[in-house]
Design goal:
The chain is mainly alpha-helical. It has one domain. 56% of the residues lie in helices and 0% in strands. The chain has 3 helices and no strands. Helix 1 runs parallel beside helix 3 and helix 2 runs parallel beside helix 3. The radius of gyration is 13 Å and the shape is globular.
């Protein structure tokens, strides 16, 4: 799976949802690679994203990041604290989680 698909949403009307699916797929790839190496990781319901209940999604998503980061020894970020109305903060949010995905993928290897 290409990490480039999760660095930032495509500039389309459904860009956020397109990003969200690729992002979810990468979480599944991480879980699969970890489990194949005997490292149990749990899946949380982060797809589809219900934009009306983004707070619950942010909590579940943070838990996934906390667990995958702990497994890989990666220092994580508070990904629950994002203001989706502030473009600069959203851009930073996408980047921070991309870096976490990239670090965990490097730890797991095998093209994750």
């Amino acid at each position: 799976m290409s990490l480039a698909q999760i660095i930032y949403p495509p500039p389309t009307p459904r860009g956020f949802q397109e990003w969200a699916f690729q992002h979810y797929a990468h979480h599944l790839a991480i879980i699969s690679a970890a489990n194949a190496q005997g490292i149990p990781l749990r899946e949380y319901n982060i797809w589809p994203i219900e934009e009306k209940d983004i707070g619950s999604w942010l909590q579940r998503h943070q838990q996934m990041h906390n667990e995958m980061n702990a497994m890989a020894g990666v220092s994580g970020n508070d990904l629950e604290d994002v203001d989706f109305k502030d473009k600069k903060k959203v851009d930073a949010w996408y980047y921070l989680q991309f870096v976490e995905h990239q670090s965990v993928a490097a730890f797991l290897g095998n093209g994750v």
